Amino acid sequence: MAASFDLDVLRGFVVGMELGSYARAAEQLGRSTSALSTQLRRLEAAAGTVLLRKDGRGLALTPAGQVLFDYAKRLLALHDEALGAMQGLCTEGTVRVGIQHDFCDKLLPRALGRFARAHPRVRLQTRVGRNTELLQALADGALDFALAWGEAAPGLRKDVIAKVPMVWIGPALPEALPQLGTEIPLVAYEDACRFRTAATAALDRAHIPWRVALTSPSLSGLWAGVSAGLGLSVRTPLGLPPSVRCMDRKAWKLPALPTLSLALYRRAPPLSDVQTRLQEIIREEIEKALVAGNARSPE
Fold first, then answer.
1. SS3 of the chain: helix, strand, coil, percent, to 5
2. Residue 281: which region, alpha, beta or left (left: phi > 0; alpha: psi -120 to 50)?
3. Among residues 267, 225, 263, 259, which one has the least CA distance to residue 244?
């Protein structure tokens, strides 16, 4: 009979590596350290190879251990999602969530799609908008929580989930790159926003002249202007369409830009279990997007 992996054993393996201590993992999982050690030996026997090696006073993954660790996390995530889906079949209610424009094309279908499949009887009411609109809707009681760029929001509770770099954005096609001569052409919202302010402030500090080449009331309008080569814009690596890309600021002699916090906002009343679950899914998808965005960013 072919060897197989026990999910409980895989969970002990993963938790131990994530905590950096199998003694702490045993405590968290409600097992004795010796029982967890026995499970790890069983896991190595099933794998047919050594998964852990001594590293000073601790343990480190062997190359085979790293491969199994990556697969184990995916297996456990799928298992937990399936279990949550079975439990969610009987869950009812309404979740009203606000999502910043930057996450509409990619994060929204992934996160909300996962949630909807796991909780088919929960009614989702989603509002896509800019920061000011979402935080005002939340303050007015029209939303349960919102994913927005971090800023002061009196009366709202803010949970920062990531620090995201601002980057210069140009067209994906090299032939569409604008000529950056004596002035930097900018593509920006038609009214004030944090990204436009950050871009002009950075250029002013570097004594680089600039001009606004295109303004738009919508994010899609900005992407159209950038992809056409009318100018550069400033956003983050998250949620970029394929028609644009992050610029290598050093190669193009562009100034450094600040980082931006990304937060989940809510009002004082505690969230329900189903609202909390959607927040957890959004966090997971943001983490995936950050890894992918950092991999693509030349900064």
1. 45, 25, 30
2. alpha
3. 225
